[in-house]
Amino acid sequence: PTCRAFAAVDLGATSGRVIVGEVTGGPGSERVELTEVARFANEPVLLPPTRGDGPEVLTWDLPALWRGILDGLRDAVARFGRLAGVGIDSWAVDYGIVDDAGRLLAAPVCYRDARTTPVLARVFDRVPAPDQYAVNGLQVQPFTTAFQLLADPVVATRVASTPTDGGAAAPTARPPISDATGGGHPAGTPAGGARVLLLPDLLGAWLTGVERAELTNASTTGLLDAATRTWSTDLLARFGLPSDLLPDLVAPGELLGAVRPAIAARLGLERQATLPVWTVGSHDTASAVVAVPLSTPSAAYVSCGTWSLVGLELPEPVLTEASRAANVTNEAGVDGTVRYLKNVMGLWVLSEALRWYASVGEPVQLADALAAARAVRPLRTVVDIDDATLLPPGDMPGRLAVLARATGQPVPSDVGEVVRCILDSLALAYRRSVREVGTLAGREVDVVHVVGGGVHNADLMQLAADALGVPVVAGPAEGAALGNVLVQARAAGLLAGTLADLRRVVERSTTLVTFTPGATGGAGAAAWDDAETRAHGGAPT
Ligand code: LRH
Question: Which segments constitute the Carbohydrate kinase FGGY N-terminal domain (predicted)?
């Protein structure tokens, strides 16, 4: 019989998973059944310099991830006998650089590291934000790949070593944007065979020996033209980056290559000749959006995990000045769609707060923290959860206290008050973001779908419904893995049709739970309006 089991490698910023999705049922009634085969921690580590007093660098433990992936795939093969494919997705923007022989030059740096700060001070003078947005349609975040590359000493020493007089990118020999780059690149300076590979592309190249840049994740680099969906040679030149630093693009749903024989042997693949690696929406959010059971253009989504990505699926990018000013991003989705969305800081703030309590000797379980939060007065203290101080790892309760004081609100002082503040503030940000994207895209949102691990947090789902004032439909929880499997299965010919057809498979495969505004007597519209004012330092009304 045909093999119908696909392995999704889904890497999140706090854990990685290998999940097998089996396609069952006949044409028109297919379902996908997910089995979690492996789950492994993903914890970045601070690496100090060996000399001087430079900062420690927050670095991904890539060898541990690679080990987790191979062990997981081996378990998947052992359990399912054969696999019809592998697809890889992960968080966006981060990358490894390989040399002309394909050897990794340094451990990839975590996007929460502060290394881009000096670059950010200069990059917008050189390439004004409106010029960037007009081409890439991308939100401004300190961790955008382009800014990381400009702060990367590997780019400086291995890639940018050709001294130049400034060339086309800097006609008057102005200093480079980056401290790191030796002298900037004239457009077209070769990268000496070095290549930047986003993490899923790097892992895919390790598995297959084929170097490509998958499109959805490429759209988070700041270097992709949002309209043409090709690398922007113009932006590369203006940033002073070599034009051949990036590999050729590939769309999701293609055959990347076959797993190399040496690795196949390690996976115990005796029962099959080859194992294909399919390209999927390798940006986890792109795969998650595939699995959102959207049924109308007026439906919005929240991909709720470490981040909360709040937005709409659109046929075309919105590149207006108003959209740029609101920092709404146009990221590439599967099948030519646009993920028009806002990054909300997400459950990171909660998980990092709990990690902080544990680190100071006051460990608390999530369930107990949520129970304590339930007992706190609704909307007691609300902050702008997207405040930049909440991005790096550290003392979340302390940072929330600073934000509370700055806006003249009661300081959340125990676990319950801190967690209540986080959940209320997240729901408030969903409300603000859904309104913003709806207005800018000209859509009146009447239902919001939530996918990702956050759907297990019923308190947050009800708060979201209360804040948004429209029904919230929660599920599936493993959105990214399911979207990953769906795109593989379609590429392999086991599913057919458009995203709408794939979403019917999602509906058949998942139990969705609807949360109705006010169902548990939560705060009403006026209270959320008032909270919005307070979160930004306005007096309560
Ligand atoms: C979510 C995510 C998000 C990016 C961020 C870096 O995991 O991929 O879409 O903005 O991580």
Answer: 196-290
